[in-house]
Amino acid sequence: MRTLGFDPKSVQPKQAIDLIRELQQIVAQNSQVLLRDVDIIAKNVKLQAEVNKLHSRITEQEARARKRDTEVERLRKDNAALIEDNAAFRSALNASKEEAKSLAEGVDALEEEMKTLKAQLTDTPITVRSL
Predict the structure, then answer these.
(1) Single pTM value for the model
(2) Is residue 130 in some structural domain?
(3) Is 7 helix (H, G, I), strand (E, B) or coil?
(4) How far is CA 28 from CA 14, 16, 32, 42, in A?
(5) 98 neighbors 91 (Cβ within 8 angstroms)
């Protein structure tokens, strides 16, 4: 009572009962406020757990995206190397075609020369000399 500014000796019984009822109402209201606060804290804990889960999922997705980006970059490099290899192969193939064409022309020339020599041999009489 002294805390509330009343002298316990000067307070009448009815007044004391009214004060006690008022204090009970205040305690009941404070209890309700505390229960609401506890409920809010519990909801905040649940929300924080959800936020943590989402953050974890985002971190995992970012890691997968980085891994994918690394793989894409590697594939791009591999593709560029294959394009270079393909160009070199085509160049070598074209050179081989030119060489094959040149060789075919040489074979044709040799065949013509063989025909000419064969014709000369068949036209020339062969004499056998006795020893």
Answers:
(1) 0.51
(2) no
(3) coil
(4) 21, 18, 6, 21
(5) no
